């Protein structure tokens, strides 16, 4: 299964690159990029984007890219620059590639540990981060939203924190050192991903490979219930989707739960097509920021994130 899945994902990645080549992105001159920045364990890196005017005192976005099978932080570079251009500095955090994981291991848990290592590193790095003046907004694209959701739960749900600490000594050592409520906002791009539903779709093979089949068979019910059950203590939530996104119904369902529980939230729901009749499916606003619909959505994303940090 592993070899055939890798070939399939490599083919999809080539198709994606061919599509993006049609509409190249022009980086703004007002943005500085510092990358790669090493943190924590060997090989762990992140990219930092900020306005040339500086980032001190500004809210910061921590972005987890999608597609652990063939994606990298380079995929979200245009989006990070667009946010920084709008005065929202961004960290794009790299996570391990699925193909580097052992067949019986959990790539998801390994990536989750690396994200926690990053937060631990950031909390002690005053040259890049001022905990008193730089509110953090955690965000994720696609599968990155799954990782981000798990981090969100660990930060605001005691049972989830205890559960993941039992699974990982790394998480157990770092999580208690992070300030309570250190996240001031959360953004999920391309839908609020609901794994129980996704595991019944054509993406089951990919998800099981990433989550770790052994871990799923042993702990699937506990894992999913703790990772995807919302907490009343959540910070404000932003859900970005589109009329033709396959996860739109899940995003709207989550919004309904937030409304019922009194959790502040905002949904940005783009039209199915932009003015050039390009399909707004998946992370179009992240990967194709020069599209007209993406520009509109990214303006709204930056504005909402800045407002969340000010509340």
**pLDDT < 50 stretches:** none
Estimate the global geometry from the Cα principal axes.
globular
Q: What is the succession of H and E elements?
A: HEEEHEHEHHHEHHHEHEHH
State the end-to-end distance. Answer: 47 Å
Q: How many distinct beta strands?
A: 8
What kind of sheet is the major sheet?
8 strands, mixed
**How many helical elements?**
12
Mean pLDDT: 81
Proportion in β-strands:
15-25%
Percent in helix: 40-55%
- Using only CA atoms, what is the Rg? 18 Å
Question: Structural class, from helix and strand content?
Answer: alpha/beta
Strand order within the widest sheet?
1-2-4-3-5-6-7-8
Structure description:
- The protein has twelve helices and eight strands.
- Helices cover 45% and strands 16% of the residues.
- With 311 residues, the protein is of the alpha/beta class.
- β1 and β2 form a beta hairpin.
- An eight-stranded mixed beta sheet has the order 1-2-4-3-5-6-7-8, sandwiched between helices.
Features:
single chain, globular, 311 residues, 12 helices, 8-stranded mixed beta sheet, alpha/beta
Condensed summary:
This protein has helices spanning 2-21, 77-85, 107-123, 143-156, 158-167, 169-174, 195-198, 204-211, 213-228, 248-261, 284-287, 292-310, and strands spanning 31-38, 45-51, 60-64, 90-93, 136-141, 183-189, 237-242, 265-270. The protein is an alpha/beta fold.
Secondary structure layout:
Elements: H1 2-21, E1 31-38, E2 45-51, E3 60-64, H2 77-85, E4 90-93, H3 107-123, E5 136-141, H4 143-156, H5 158-167, H6 169-174, E6 183-189, H7 195-198, H8 204-211, H9 213-228, E7 237-242, H10 248-261, E8 265-270, H11 284-287, H12 292-310
Helix pairs in contact: 3-4, 4-5
